[in-house]
């Protein structure tokens, strides 16, 4: 990318603006949570949040298929943003996910402890999974789609094993 090119991803209220400076113009696209191409991703985030809340904040006890669904929908969504870097794609997805999670938290009566575990899980489970999937999508990891899903499942299991509280003996 030359010095004159730039990408900007900004969240303003409920609209995410993605801008790119080309050779002769600035291209801009606005993404709303209600857009048809975002709805599957929003639904996946809400299902994941519901699963974590039902498991009382335990990411280990929640249904991991919701996490896999979220990652899959996220990859479908960012695939169309070919001009964005890996970090920008990750940032775009995390902005959308964080916005939906914040809306779910505001509209719920969940305990503070569950909220904290939910937000911690977004940082420790969802973010690394997204980065791994985006890197595979961009061709940095030479694997097929089935292998990606199996790898993500292994990463999730390893994260849960590493973050599990040791039992008192």
Uncertain ranges: 1-5
Classification by helices and strands: mainly alpha
Radius of gyration of CA atoms, rounded to a whole number: 17 Å
The chain-level mean pLDDT equals 80
- Terminal Cα span: 56 Å
Helix segment count?
5
- Estimate percent helicity: 55-70%
Q: Would you give an account of this structure?
A:
The structure is a single chain. A 3-stranded antiparallel β-sheet has the order 1-2-3, with helices on one face. It has one domain (35-163). It is 59% helix and 12% strand. Helix 4 packs antiparallel against helix 5. The protein contains 5 helices and 3 strands. By secondary structure, it is mostly helical.
What brief labels describe this structure?
169 residues; mainly alpha; 5 helices; globular; disordered N terminus
Provide the fold topology:
Layout: E1 7-12, E2 15-21, E3 26-32, H1 36-54, H2 64-78, H3 86-106, H4 112-137, H5 145-163
Antiparallel strand pairs: 1-2, 2-3
Helix pairs in contact: 1-2, 1-3, 2-4, 3-4, 4-5
How would you summarize this macromolecular structure in one to three sentences?
This protein has five helices and three strands. A hairpin with a 4-residue loop joins strand 2 and strand 3.
